Amino acid sequence: MSPKSILVDQKKKRRPLYLGVDVPLLLVVITLITFGLLMLYSASWQYAVSIMGQKPSYLLERQIKFVLLGGLAAIIAFFFDYHKMKNFVIPGMVVTLIMLLLVIFYVNEVRLGARRGLFQGSIQPSELAKLVLIIYLAFWLHGKQDLLHHFTFGMLPMAAILGIASALILFQPDLSAAITIFIIGGLMFFMAGGEMRQIIPALIISLVFGMVSVLFYSTGKERITSFIQGMQDPQMASYHLVRSFEAIVNGGVFGVGIGRANTKFTGLPVAPTDSIFSVIVEETGIIGASFIIILFNIFLWRGLTIAKRSPDLLGRLLASGITVWIFLEAFINMSVLVNLLPFAGNALPFISYGGSSLTMVLVGVGIIMSVARHTAIKTNQEEGRPLNAVVSLRRNDGWRSVSRTCRPSSTRK
To answer: Can you tell me the distance from the alpha carbon of 357 to that of 346, in angstroms, rounded to the nearest whole number?
Structure first.
């Protein structure tokens, strides 16, 4: 055999080493965070000065601290074996429920008609509950997979888990968070192998429960009424939505320019948090809004792709549950501000100001990446190449390429 043919044969045997970092997902997260910090400063400097009595960069500096904290937590989650989280699931759930109870019975400070934060509002247990509940359900569904088709051992305990957490959140009250938890729980039950004959009755019961909750929940009743009026005539919508419409109309196609929006100065409610998407549309136009929507759709695609390639059901449930949760938060936030859904208090992930939300979302991203990493470990092991293999960076070998490990003749087919 000639040297040239030997070289060609060697190159055919080489395969890229999968390092477990989903680059598109990572780039999307970095882009959203970077753009979010820019828009947060634009939306918050006047709010920080006039409403909070702080310096213009106050909220931006706090958000950067949360980014660093959440980023560190995400890195730890990335290198942590998600299977070992089983040891922390029950204690984590107990601590979360205790924190939700503390909000109900020991928090006297009311903000925007709700009690949601501990330590002067710096920690919101409802945000922690969303991630902890997803992790808890992933392990519970994974362990009860063979019993899911039994109503007594499957749907009934599942409904109890979701019902207890949702009830504690409703007492704050936080209707949007409770609804989000029910939606995510139902989707995870379906992805774990639950049957439609169980899911459809559960959806009907949840719908009835939701309608009853709205009837006894004054704020929820007002939001439904405002939503219907806004669908009939945008000028009859709530003040919040009217100002949001104004910002979107002002933005047009290309926007008025970053930092030049007017509605954030003239009464757009909570511009740095719930309404930051309206600020984005006003300053960057439909082009900027479309860019954000595309990024979140890429996030959904990559997260579900990682879930699909997961080496086991547990990883699939974790990755898909967290991905759907983050995407659903973004979808609800953006839809609310254009009156496609009744008003809800969901934050825009990676962009809205809020330490609890941002930190939990970044931890969730770290867990998704951990699933991708373990998929890469399994893929490399199947191809005879451990993750700690030496990577050749020579041009003629290609980037991140390693030679396939030679296997004993007994294992060759």
So the answer is: 9
Q: When comparing pLDDT for 162 and 82, which is higher?
A: 82
Q: Which two tokens stand for residue 350?
A: 């990676």
Contact 274, 242 (CB under 8 A): no
Per-residue pLDDT reduced to its tens digit, 248-298: 999 999 999 998 888 988 888 888 988 999 999 999 999 999 999 999 999
Average the pLDDT over 357-361 and give the result.
Answer: 93
Residue 245 clears pLDDT 70, i.e. is over it: yes
Please give the residue that has the higher pLDDT: either 39 or 342: 39
Going from the C-alpha of 186 to that of each of 202, 243, 350, the distances in angstroms are 8, 34, 25
Task: Give the C-alpha separation, 314 to 288, whole Å.
Answer: 36
Burial class (CB in 10 A: 0-12, 13-18, 19+), 265: exposed
CA 407 – CA 234 distance, rounded (Å): 69
Residue among 244, 263, 346 nearest 43 (CA): 263
Nearby residues of 22 by Cβ (< 8 Å), 6 or more positions away: 302, 305, 306, 368, 369, 372
What is the C-alpha separation between 335 and 313, in angstroms, rounded? Answer: 32
Q: In percent, how much of the chain has pLDDT > 70?
A: 72
Mean per-residue pLDDT for 15-33? 81
How many other CB atoms are there within 10 angstroms of residue 90's CB atom? Answer: 11
Block residue for tokens 């504690």: 168
CA–CA gap between residue 246 and residue 233 (Å, rounded): 14
Q: Is 266 exposed, middle or buried (0-12, 13-18, 19+ CB in 10 A)?
A: exposed
